[in-house]
Amino acid sequence: MIKKAEFVVSNSDPSKCPKPERAEIAFIGRSNVGKSSLINMITGKKDLAKTSQKPGKTQLINHFMINDQWFLVDLPGYGFAKVNVKVKEGWENMIKTYLTKRSNLCGVFVLIDSRLEPQKIDLEFLLWCGVNGVPAALIFTKADKQSKTKTNQNVQKFLKKTEEIFEEAPDYFVTSSETGFGKESLLDFIDELVKE
Ligand code: GTP
Ligand code: MG
């Protein structure tokens, strides 16, 4: 249960993030997949994280303090083709440095667009997480956009692909920031992660 959610700080340099003295959960995924919207949905604060119809909205590492207890982090997306190569590489380096160096990180949610067939870029990113020991779970977003049947088909296809990456199937959630679908089960899972 999230009773309080406050913005703390934005950083471009992972080493300048708040002292790693509290449990931390981060949201990552392709640009426009719905990371910031999901953060607003689970915290019940619709303007906490900035969202946009245009990909590339979130450009920094954004820390939020939850219940005066743990950090929730909104990250820029990967794979956004429309920014120049240098900027794109800069974001990707920042994200990868953050994900591998952040000592208090207890869970990383990789968001996947539930409307799409498995995408190479997401599978490659997950493989990178696996190789680097980043504790990844999956969230399939935008479930309100198509039928349950279609969502389930895409989810199953994606999970099948992850068998080539992980020995054990990753934990996964299906959500909609539009309807609030999936909020309870995701929050229960996060509660356990930040408790450990
Ligand atoms: P970047 O910060 O650019 O990487 O994007 P992001 O992953 O943070 O995505 P953001 O939350 O800004 O959402 C992108 C667009 O998708 C916005 O127009 C949102 O309103 C829309 N969106 C996000 N989640 C959902 C959802 O569950 N359902 C629907 N219908 N739209 C969604
Ligand atoms: Mg964002």
UniProtKB/TrEMBL annotation:
Record Gene3D superfamilies: P-loop containing nucleotide triphosphate hydrolases
Reported cofactor(s): Mg(2+)
UniProt KW keywords: Cell cycle, Cell division, GTP-binding, Magnesium, Metal-binding, Nucleotide-binding, Septation
Family under the similarity heading: Belongs to the TRAFAC class TrmE-Era-EngA-EngB-Septin-like GTPase superfamily. EngB GTPase family.
NCBIfam families: GTPase_YsxC (TIGR03598)
Function per UniProt: Necessary for normal cell division and for the maintenance of normal septation.
UniProt name for this protein: Probable GTP-binding protein EngB
Source species of the chain: Algoriphagus limi
This protein's encoding gene: yihA
